[in-house]
Amino acid sequence: MQIDIIAVHPELIKSPFEYSIIKRAVDKNLVEVHFHDLRKYAVNKYGKIDDYQFGGGAGMVLMIEPVDKCISELQSQRSYDEIIYMTPDAPTLDQSMANQLSSAENIIILTGHYKGVDQRVRDKFITREISIGDYVLSGGELAAAVLCDAVIRLIPGVLGDETSALTDSFQDNLLAPPVYTRPSDYQGMKVPDILLSGNFKKIDDWRYEQAVKRTSEIRPDLLKKEDN
Question: What is the pLDDT of residues 125-154, one digit of tens each?
Fold first, then answer.
């Protein structure tokens, strides 16, 4: 997989790709991540990439020309499965989206900034819009990093245990059950006996029951989604 991230401040998100699981994926050549500074495609020598919005109103808007130049250049080199725009006024990222995107070969992620991007960019180029929550960030760079982390860890070969991602929260519209490790008794706080029993069928049943219980208490909306 190749991911090309277009950003006003690409330096904001380079560090997450230099550590832990994402770095492992890069080192294994399972994913390539390239950062593109939108200012390199500015409309003048002063680095102009934004302007006031037509009709008045507060906040600057990313211009279509720099984005067009950048995306068109990338498309001249390869085809892309998705061109994603990170913006709060979009469907919220969930595990299902991450699963779908993990099978893509090439992705462009355009990060929003200021008051957003000229609507014509969205009309001409964008194939999918994604939000990471009902709140507004200073820019879409951090949102892009979140999306990349959620997707890259699902690529086969990235995680040490291929089955690990299958038991994550939200894979079955359920939150993950409680987990424990050594010692089995810490200052009187004991691990549930069932987890020490060696009866894996009963352990699986217990984990499912706990997942349903935890989901019903914390995120009952997920259970309603499953019913639908």
Answer: 999 999 999 999 999 999 999 999 999 999
